[in-house]
Amino acid sequence: MTANKIPPLAAELIKPDDHSIASSAVTKSQQQTLARRLLLLPHSSDDLPPLLTVSSNTHPELAAELYDFIALALRAYVNPWWTKLTRYDKEFLPHINRILVHVVHAIEERAHNVQLSSLAFHDLPTIITQHYVDFRNIQPKLSTSYATGGAASLSHLFAQIQPHTAISSDGKIDPEYYRQVVDIILKLCLPPEDYEPEVERVIIREVLVKVLVNDIFPKITQPWFIQKTILDLLGPIEEEFYGSSRSSQPASNDTSFFHSMVIIILSALQSFSGACLALMHAYKQAISTIKLVNQTPSQPSKDSTSSQDTATDIQPTKAAQPTQTPPAAPSSSSSSTTSVNLPSDGIPTLSPVLPPSQQVQDYAVAPLRMLTEIINAHERYASTLFLSTLSMTASSMTPFLDKLLPYLLQHFLSPSFVLNTTRLSKRTLFPNGYPGPPPIIPTPEEQAEIRAKIVAWRGKGPISHLLPIILGSDPSATLGAALDPLSDADCNARLIVFILDRLLLTLFPELVA
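The line above is the sequence of PXA domain-containing protein; the predicted structure tokens follow.
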């Protein structure tokens, strides 16, 4: 036996074990994610506290994605200045994380208990419809005495019709407005012992306000961003269809008439069988969906203030001294204006404006009205007739639709959808693990190209045959007019603020005055 050769028994004895100290150290280092390194105490063997506890059907990766999002936000907005004060304190970020866990638990419980059907099928469509009505009522008043002889801009006139404390007349968001809102939300979500320390509360509040006011609002209110989002939802736009040109080519001379007839007959049979299979599948799917919907109990109307209004206004404290909005100008439309109520104790509250809607079902009415206003259907007889027929059909099926639409909404807001939304938000706000640079505004040519692709959309399948009836003889002009009310960033900011107020009011009805 040579000196370099190791006996088989000795080689087996010195073979590294999978459970050795080295391998366990490697495994432990691989498990040290960013959330564990920042949100747990050093050398801690504990796991991160459970983030989602109410919903039992959540995606298993959702908690990890949310923790990664929290860790990225704290590393970006807290760690840079905190390490300048002291680099030895490693308990500050874990303590903030414990506070955030309480907030997430409270929001999850409230979101699990609220009724989203009224929000999705009544309140939000009503807000969007009012935005289109007010915008189109303002456009004819430009360059007239209503606009002080043409000196007032479109956004200034829109601010007079839809005043809001959070936005000044020039479209700037007031961060003090959301500081007060977040402070009340923290008071409602946190235990008293966690809410009392002002330092932690202020840090969490400023991080949330910074992300919302400085990072999210300036991006989602841009017309090109909204148009790009619509384009992504529509899918790829096919500019040319080459199939028809290929099929129209003449047959070769050596192809017999009998051979061509056989191909035509077999193609027709294949198309017919495919259509029959598609109809059978659609019929079975429809029957299954109808059975599931009929088995779903009707959602009772919740007698709570979370479904009482669609446009609200949060009033800051007296010390904030917000920019006063001008008085609302007379308008023929019932605008989503807000009332100003400042309580004596100075606590910001939500003031309901529109009449109560907690008894309203008819979930198909508001979306159809929104569609009618977006495409401006009242200017075309065929569109008006089609949507009127559709509205009458929906009215005759109200009990069934009041079960079907919440059922579809529940399946749309699936755990996978929430997970994808969280991942998309994380990649958008922290593209490389840190806050990304300001969004690159597309050039005018690129913005025009995005708009042109939306205007050129004609749909696929049955929707392509209905478009001439819904959009009229010139679909491009109709789609272009539908994009006009979303073409001003200041007006879009008011729309987003009203929608956000409605979402906050749904989750936190205590904000109502």
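Note on the example: The radius of gyration is 29 Å. The first helix runs from residue 8 to 13.
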